[in-house]
Amino acid sequence: MGMSQSYGVPDDTESIATIHRALELGLVFFDTAEVYGPFLNEELVGRALKGRRERAVIATKFGFRIENGTIAGTDSRPGHIREAVEGSLRRLQTDHIDLLYQHRVDPHVPIEDVAGAVADLVRAGKVRYFGLSEAGEENIRRAHATHPVTALQSEYSLWERNLEPRIIPVLRELGIGLVPFSPLGRGFLTGTARRAEEYPEGDFRRGDPRFQGENYDANVRAASAVQKIAERTNAKPGQVALAWLLQKGEDIVPIPGTKRRTYLEENTAAVSLKLEPDDIARLDHALSPEAVSGPRYNQRMMATIDR
Fold it and tell me: How many Cβ atoms from other residues are within 10 Å of residue 19's Cβ?
């Protein structure tokens, strides 16, 4: 997403070079969505993977109604899903999508209808696997009973632990993988975060409650534990945050949204960083839900989360 919107000025040349470098490093899972841009990011990924498609696993998402370049609400009606997939296939320059997510649960369409529509696309060879994003326990179970859910994508990181009490146990019960987005806390866990007002207009973090006022101050204090462990292990703070996630289980595949080769290579090195149990315990405590200040979204965006 960050390559096409929300975090600074896009640079397609560097973004494509970053995707190519990812392939060289053995990273094959690329996550996009029709609303990123909108549409621009799928087109970018399609260009970047042209001639390299067989080396990549492409995930994209449907589920919003897009009007005049903006999101105008959810829409997971089966007919709309089919239209969205045809558009995604065209922009991605491919004949199939490896992992197709419902981007947000649509309260107006039964999840069984959504799963059934994706099942039809799987049978047609246009989609390989079905995923959900930010779905709650009940809808995960209902969808999975209709057509197997391969992965749930949701925000999960050291500073966003809402999945731990109920969602992760359900995923493991059903054999569903977890794809955490924003695993670096939108830069907070890398030590590079600034106050909301210091970001330019249009940057997502400008409206993020956790970057504002007293929330920002409290979160800087909480995240200092990451910095301390990074210094002791001769690692970058972001590598510590990713290593924490990777050591939570082989069924967890984080997707740090870098758009530059430098950060890509830095993130990839987290695979070789093994945290000691005491380090993990310190991080768990320092960034417990009680220690992190502010909701992760504004009220409008929180209303789209199926919890």
Answer: 22
Give the residue numbers marked as catalytic: 36
How far is CA 226 from each of CA 64, 131, 167, 176, 255, rounded to the nearest angstrom?
Answer: 36, 31, 25, 29, 19
Can you tell me the distance from the alpha carbon of 52 to that of 56, in angstroms, rounded to the nearest whole number?
A: 7
- Answer whether residue 231 is part of any domain: yes
Do 135 and 190 belong together in one domain? no
pLDDT tens digit sequence for 7-46: 778 999 999 999 999 999 999 999 999 999 999 999 999 9
Domain that holds residue 72: 1-155
> What secondary structure does DSSP assign to 155-198, as a single string?
E-BTTB-TTTTTHHHHHHHHT-EEEEESTTGGGGGGT----GGG
Residue 162 lies in a domain: no
Separation of CA 11 from chain center: 20
Distance CA 120, CA 139 (A): 19
Cis status of the peptide bond prior to 254, with omega within 30 of 0: no
In the chain, how many domains are there? 2
pLDDT in tens, 209-224: 999 999 999 999 999 9
Q: Are 60 and 42 in contact (CB under 8 A)?
A: yes
CATH number, domain containing residue 63: 3.20.20.100
